[in-house]
Amino acid sequence: MSQLVFYNIFNGLIIGAFYALMALGLSLILNLSGVINFAHGGFLAVGAYLAFVLMPYVGFWGALAISPILTAGIGLIVERLLIRRLYGRDPLYSLLLTFGLAFMLEDGTRFIWGPQTLPFSIPSWLSSPLSNQFFFLTGYRLFMVLLVTAAVIALFVILNYTRLGVRIRAGTLDLETVAVLGVDVRILRSLNFGLGIYLAGLAGVLAAGMLGLQPTIGNDLIMPSFVAIIIGGLGSLPGTLLGGLLIGVASGVTTVFFPSASEAVIYIMMGLVLLVRPRGLLGEEGRF
Amino acid sequence: MTDGPYGKRAADIVIWLLLLTMPYWLEAVGGYTQLGSRVVIMALAAMSLNFLLGYTGVLSFGHAAYFGLGVYGMGMTIKYLVPSTLAGMAVGVLAGAAAAAIIGLLIVHLRGIYFAMVTIAFGQVFYFIAYRWNNVTGGDDGLSGWSRQPIDLGFASIDILHNQTAFYYFALLCFAVAVTLMAALLRSPFGRTLLAIRENERRARFLGIPVDRHIWVSWLISCTFVSLAGTLYALLNNFADPHDLRWDQSGDFVIMAVLGGMRSFWGPLVGAAIFVVLQDYVSSETQNWMSFIGLFFVIVVLFFPRGVLGIVRRKAVS
């Protein structure tokens, strides 16, 4: 029993790491540009399928390195052509636009690669269990946790110690002042969008290795990512990270005792947080 | 279509005449009666959403949840409780209203994009319940094995199951009652207050208007009528589909309202008609209907953000 619980907590942590990776990208875009990117799950799928295409040529590691960058490139093009027009307008419009994009990306991947689940092979030394007692602790899972941790640390280093990151954080607080100080806000928003999509692409490659490739791969992850942002508090990236891990573990633990509620539990948590602390766990007072 | 009392009155008459005679000309233009019923039902849903979106200025992206509660309330009542259409409607609407009342309390002080996100997320709870509670809701396969029942008026009973035209008029009657009620509410001081909140919330608050309470009531009204539309939709299909509860359905409602014109009362009706017909056509022509609907969203946002009636009205003014 305790092993089962342990297994599900660990599993929950992994799922939570995914949610967090997704949600951090969403959060970046939301905080700076006020756009809820519904198409984030679609970009995740694009990242996964691009890795699938690249793998025969550059191998798993090459795909892991290149695919998120390509995905971010596609994200930049989409931002430049479509989303940029909607900054400063009612959030309704960017919501609807990214909503349409999500449809197109899902259907597009289905059209190109078919609706069936495609196998995504990972290096064999990663897929074997590390020990017999903890059979579920495959190298890949451990590797995923490490990689997500590294990505999150890198993100926070970028945000805290690079000029771009400082500008992104400043823009989140007061975009007008940042613009007045001579920063090109359009470029800043583009780069920030690209960074968010890069994280989606990275999550896509990792998810493909764990879940296999399906056009709907991003759909199951996007809603919990919203919940992670709300629980953690809008406007707070550490909050988003915390929210993602929390709901991952919560749904993991619920799986042990009441499997059919494993999805619903995170929404109940969200309801509780909104009831007790409407701004979210680490959200700032009065921001929304 | 010009503004002013006469122009508005004329537009109202034309719309009601078109709706009342729809079964008689729809087939001539390539439609079928069920499509007309779907237009009326979706229009009711979109107009209910617009009560909140267009007239209160609050962006809900989770109305499918309450629509779906109506759908499942109807299906489960007829299947498990009593074979009565009216009882099903009562249960469906009450279920939707109760859920909206409770969730409304949690979210009513949130605004803008935060409100939108929380409504989206809350909407998914009901989807997962319907999806996972297999033995009661039918899970992913949906709830089938029931059908709409004749409406017993005491002295006569109306067969809405086999007679599609009768069902159309039944749906239209519900639509008319709901829409007339909403129009009356919007003309009342309460409705004017909602407009004031939409235009300038801070000023409304300074005038002493309890803004949160007004938004909660508006949300509740909107969700209640959306669940009424849901019960009718269940009757139309004789089936409850978990996808009726999902976020894509919420997006459909919003796009209908935007496409027709959020700032005009009949706008969502026009939007619903265009959307339903387009969806019907595209999904019968191609497997990749999702791409086309997605592209349609993008085009509407980029080129018709004011909606069809918004454009018509601006042309009329200039």
Number of helices of chain B: 14
Compute the number of structural domains of chain B. Answer: 1
Mean pLDDT of chain A: 86
Based on Cα principal axes, name the global outline of chain A.
globular
Rg calculated over all Cα atoms of chain A: 19 Å
Strand line-up of the largest beta sheet of chain B: 1-2
DSSP E strands of chain B, number: 2
Could you give a short account of the major beta sheet of chain A? none
Overall strand count of chain A: 0
Major sheet size, sense and barrel closure of chain B: 2 strands, antiparallel
- For this structure, the CATH topology of chain B is ABC transporter involved in vitamin B12 uptake, BtuC
Quaternary organisation: heterodimer
Supply the helix-strand structural class of chain B: mainly alpha
Summarize the structure in words:
The complex is a heterodimer of chains A (288) and B (318). Chain A is an all-alpha fold. Chain A contains eleven helices and no strands. The longest helix of chain A is centred in the N-terminal third of the chain and has 42 residues, at 40-81. The radius of gyration of chain A is 19 Å and the shape is globular. In chain A, 51% of the residues are buried. In chain B, helix 11 crosses helix 12 (267-285) and helix 11 packs parallel to helix 14 (307-317). Chain B has one domain (4-317): ABC transporter involved in vitamin B12 uptake, BtuC (Orthogonal Bundle). With 318 residues, chain B is mainly alpha-helical.
Main features:
heterodimer; A: 288 residues; mainly alpha; 11 helices; 75% helix; B: 318 residues; ABC transporter involved in vitamin B12 uptake, BtuC; two-stranded antiparallel sheet; 14 helices; 74% helix; 1% strand; globular
Topology:
The complex is a heterodimer of chains A (288) and B (318).
Chain A: H1 2-33, H2 40-81, H3 91-113, H4 124-127, H5 139-161, H6 163-173, H7 175-180, H8 185-211, H9 219-232, H10 237-257, H11 264-276
Chain B: H1 5-25, H2 33-53, H3 64-81, H4 85-107, H5 112-132, H6 134-137, E1 151-152, E2 157-158, H7 164-187, H8 189-199, H9 201-206, H10 211-237, H11 247-260, H12 267-285, H13 289-303, H14 307-317
Antiparallel strand pairs in B: 1-2
